[in-house]
Design the sequence.
C-alpha cells in the first residue's frame, strides 16, 4: 500500500512537470503574494519616467554614436585618400628613376605620422619596393598575397583587422592608389591608418551618454516621487468621494477651487453627485404617481432607440423639381413656400399607396425608400410604379395649375436598388432613420442627370426578376457618373403595363379629390 501511494505521488509530480500550465501555476501564485496589492501613483510615475528617460536617452545615444561614427569615418576616408594621392605624387619621380633610397625614405617618413600604421610602394608588377610599418598584404596578415586583387587603376579602400599581429590587436583601414605618369602606371602606393582613435572617440561618447542617462534617471525618479506624493492627496479625496457615491451618499461636495485638471474633475464629480441626487428625487416622485414596476421598467431602459443599422437590399428614389432655383428667383418667399408645401403634401399623402417611406425632404428634393423599415419583397416594382404615379399626377396637377394661371411644375426622378445600410444615424441626442451607401448616392446622381419628366433607372434595376415584364422602359445610354470608374447603363421608364394603369388612375382621382382644397 505504501509503495502504491509513492507511485501515485511520483506520477502526479511527473504529470505536473509535463503540463506547463500546472507547473507555472504555483510560480505565478508566489509572485502574486510577493507583489503589493496597491502601488502608489508616485512609484508608478517614477518607474514610468525612469523607463521613458532610459528609452529616450538610449535612442539619442544611438543617433549620436551613429552620426559620430559616420563623421569620423568620412574624415578618415577623406584624409586617407588625400594622403594616398599626395604619396603617389611624391613617389612618381623616384619610381621612374628607380631611386630606391628615396622610396624607402618616403615610406619611412610617412609611417612616423600619428595614426598611420604603415606605408608601402609597389612596382607595376606588384613587387614590394619599399615598406614601413604594418601592411595588410604582409605574411600572416588578413590579405596576405592579395595585393594584385586590391590594386588596380582606381583608389580603393580596404578595412581589416589583425588580432595577433606583431604589433598586437590591429583595427585598420588602408588606401591604395596607382602612381600614373602620362597614362602609364608606374606603380602603386599603400597607406594604412589605425581605427583605434575612432573607437576611443565612440567609447567616450557612449560613456558620456550612459553617465548623463543615469543622472537624469535618478533626478527624474526623485522628482516624480515627490510629485506623485503631492498628486496623491487630492486623488485620495476623489477616491473617497467615488466610494461614497457608490454607497448611495450623494450629498457630498469636494473643494473644486483648484485651477487644474484635478479641480475640473472635482467639479465634475460634484455635478455628477448633484445630478444623481436629483435623479433619485425624481424617481422617488415618479414612483408615487405610477406603479413601481412600470416606473422601474421605464427608467431602466431610457435608450430603447439606439444608433446603428443593418445591411439591407432595398430601393431608393430621389424626386427633384426641375428648374426650382430659377423659378424661386421670380417668386415671392410665400409663393416658394406654397409650392414646396404642395410638393411635400401630395408626396406625403400618396407614398403609402406603394409601400414607400419618406426618408427626408432636401429643399426641392424628396428622398423615398422602399423595402425598409417595413419589409417588402416587391419594393423595386413599387418604387418604379410610384415614380410613374408621380409623373402622371404631376401632369394632371399641371393642367389645373395652367388653367388657374400658375406655372407648371415638372420633376425628374432617379431610382436605384442595391445593398445599403439602414438604421438610426446621427447622435444619441438627435438621430434619424435613413439609408446610406453607394446605391443611395447613385440614385441621387441619376436624379440630377435625368431630364424634365424623365424617370431614370440603372440596367441592374431594370433586370430585377418580376420587374422587367411589368414596366415599359427603353434603354437610354451609358453615363459616366462622378465617383464611378465604369460607365452606368441606364433605362428610361415610360409607363407600367395596362393591368396596373387603371388602378393607378383611380388612385390619382381619389388623391386629387381628397386634396383639392389643400393643393389647389
Sequence:
Amino acid at each position: 500500500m505504501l509503495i502504491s501511494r509513492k507511485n501515485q505521488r511520483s506520477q502526479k509530480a511527473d504529470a505536473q512537470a509535463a503540463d506547463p500550465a500546472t507547473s507555472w501555476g504555483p510560480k505565478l501564485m508566489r509572485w502574486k503574494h510577493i507583489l503589493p496589492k496597491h502601488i502608489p501613483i508616485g512609484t508608478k510615475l517614477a518607474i514610468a519616467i525612469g523607463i521613458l528617460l532610459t528609452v529616450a536617452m538610449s535612442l539619442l545615444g544611438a543617433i549620436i554614436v551613429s552620426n559620430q561614427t559616420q563623421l569620423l569615418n568620412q574624415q578618415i576616408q577623406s584624409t586617407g585618400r588625400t594622403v594616398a594621392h599626395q604619396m603617389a605624387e611624391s613617389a612618381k619621380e623616384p619610381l621612374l628613376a628607380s631611386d630606391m633610397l628615396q622610396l624607402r625614405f618616403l615610406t619611412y617618413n610617412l609611417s612616423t605620422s600619428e595614426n598611420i600604421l604603415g606605408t608601402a610602394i609597389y612596382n607595376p608588377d606588384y613587387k614590394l619596393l619599399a615598406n614601413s610599418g604594418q601592411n595588410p598584404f604582409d605574411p600572416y596578415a588578413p590579405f596576405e598575397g592579395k595585393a594584385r586583387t586590391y590594386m588596380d587603376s582606381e583608389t580603393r579602400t580596404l578595412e581589416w583587422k589583425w588580432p595577433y599581429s606583431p604589433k598586437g590587436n590591429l583595427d585598420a583601414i588602408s588606401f591604395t592608389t596607382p602612381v600614373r605618369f602620362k597614362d602609364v602606371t608606374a606603380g602603386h602606393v599603400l597607406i594604412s591608418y589605425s581605427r583605434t582613435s575612432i573607437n576611443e572617440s565612440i567609447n567616450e561618447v557612449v560613456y558620456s551618454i550612459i553617465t548623463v542617462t543615469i543622472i537624469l534617471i535618478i533626478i527624474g525618479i526623485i522628482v516624480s516621487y515627490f510629485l506623485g506624493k503631492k498628486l496623491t492627496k487630492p486623488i485620495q479625496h476623489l477616491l473617497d468621494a467615488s466610494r461614497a457615491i457608490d454607497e448611495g451618499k450623494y450629498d457630498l461636495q469636494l473643494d473644486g477651487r483648484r485651477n487644474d485638471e484635478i479641480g475640473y474633475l472635482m467639479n465634475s464629480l460634484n455635478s455628477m453627485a448633484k445630478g444623481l441626487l436629483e435623479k433619485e428625487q425624481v424617481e422617488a416622485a415618479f414612483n408615487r404617481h405610477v406603479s413601481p414596476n412600470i416606473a422601474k421598467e421605464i427608467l431602466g431602459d431610457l435608450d430603447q432607440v439606439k444608433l446603428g443599422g443593418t445591411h439591407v437590399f432595398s430601393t431608393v428614389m430621389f424626386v427633384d423639381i426641375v428648374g426650382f432655383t430659377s423659378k424661386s428667383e421670380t417668386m415671392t418667399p410665400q409663393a416658394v413656400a406654397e409650392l414646396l408645401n404642395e410638393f411635400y403634401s401630395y408626396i406625403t399623402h400618396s407614398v403609402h399607396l406603394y409601400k414607400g417611406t419618406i426618408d427626408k425632404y432636401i429643399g426641392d428634393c424628396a428622398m423615398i425608400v422602399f423595402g425598409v423599415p417595413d419589409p417588402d419583397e416587391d419594393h423595386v416594382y413599387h418604387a418604379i410604379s410610384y415614380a410613374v404615379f408621380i409623373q402622371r399626377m404631376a401632369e394632371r396637377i399641371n393642367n389645373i395649375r395652367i388653367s388657374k394661371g400658375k406655372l407648371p411644375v415638372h420633376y425628374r426622378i432617379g431610382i436605384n436598388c442595391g445593398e445599403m445600410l439602414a438604421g438610426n444615424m446621427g447622435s444619441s441626442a438627435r438621430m434619424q432613420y435613413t439609408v446610406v451607401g453607394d446605391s443611395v448616392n447613385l440614385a441621387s446622381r441619376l436624379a440630377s442627370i435625368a431630364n424634365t419628366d424623365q424617370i431614370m433607372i440603372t440596367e441592374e434595376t431594370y433586370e430585377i426578376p418580376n420587374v422587367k415584364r411589368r414596366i415599359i422602359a427603353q434603354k437610354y445610354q451609358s453615363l459616366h457618373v462622378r465617383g464611378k470608374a465604369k460607365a452606368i447603363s441606364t433605362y428610361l421608364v415610360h409607363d407600367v403595363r395596362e393591368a396596373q394603369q387603371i388602378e393607378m388612375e383611380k388612385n390619382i382621382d381619389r388623391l386629387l379629390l381628397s386634396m383639392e382644397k389643400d393643393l389647389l
